[in-house]
């Protein structure tokens, strides 16, 4: 009798804990582990961090957060003027920030040449944040092959070239070695109409670096999967004519604040996680459905595809 009572109480306690975690999950904006993670300032204080795509959005938010935690920053994007403006506004001494403009559509050999010298800027390299990226708002049949190749160059090949050139410096990072943090996307797991090359390039990014993580012993890889975030990504997305889309879309407008995403990214990195999913509950649920019930997800996604297309194309 007593034993049965103990088992009953234990079941109630376990059930209550699971229910609490479930309700936190359905109301939260990231996976449970990331939701409860905390940033340890010692993870970043005095560490050298290279951020690509740093002039706006998540990259700029990462720079602000890391500056507050005492990191030494190397900021990269095509737009040098915007990088300098950001560097002047960061909450840290200006000498703690180095602006390194780089167009990631350049040939791999040039990207590797630039990247191979990055560790000399502050004398070491602790983190590489592969954050640069471009999206699409065009059907697979309408996008020219040059556009597909350009998207893979920015979202995938440039990150590979840049990281390959940094591996030696990251392996030699004092302590436990360096860390590579990739801004992937839930689009790597949940395919969306009008974004076929974007989804494919992000899937390639996630897979390549997960394999690299298995191969390296002194370099850690963290893949981050954000959902919709209020950044210029839709405005700057590739359209059918190869030009920029030129406007946002409803999902992006309703997305998470980039500061919140940057905060959770750094918490996940600081906590030693290998991945983090950061998105609104509806998007997180979609990733679970796509993974666990692909047939059901295909039915749901196909029914929503036309409505989504109309909202994007403004028809």
Descriptive notes:
This protein is of the alpha/beta class and 315 residues long. It has helices at 2-27, 32-36, 57-68, 80-89, 108-115, 119-122, 145-171, 196-215, 250-253, 258-270, 281-292, 294-313, and strands at residues 48-52, 72-76, 97-99, 127-130, 178-183, 219-226, 275-278. 51% of the residues lie in helices and 11% in strands. Helix 3 crosses helix 10 and helix 7 (145-171) runs parallel beside helix 8 (196-215). 41% of the residues are buried.
Task: Present the secondary structure layout.
Blueprint: H1 2-27, H2 32-36, E1 48-52, H3 57-68, E2 72-76, H4 80-89, E3 97-99, H5 108-115, H6 119-122, E4 127-130, H7 145-171, E5 178-183, H8 196-215, E6 219-226, H9 250-253, H10 258-270, E7 275-278, H11 281-292, H12 294-313
Parallel strand pairs: 1-2, 1-4, 2-3, 4-5, 5-6, 6-7
Order of helices and strands: HHEHEHEHHEHEHEHHEHH
Largest sheet: 7 strands, parallel
Q: In one word, what is the shape?
A: globular
- Name of the CATH first level of the largest domain: Alpha Beta
The count of helical stretches stands at: 12
Which structural class matches the secondary elements?
alpha/beta
- The total strand number stands at 7
Number of separate structural domains: 2
| CA distance, first residue to last residue | 68 Å
- Indicate the radius of gyration in whole angstroms: 21 Å
CATH superfamily of the largest domain: NAD(P)-binding Rossmann-like Domain
Uncertain segments: 16-25
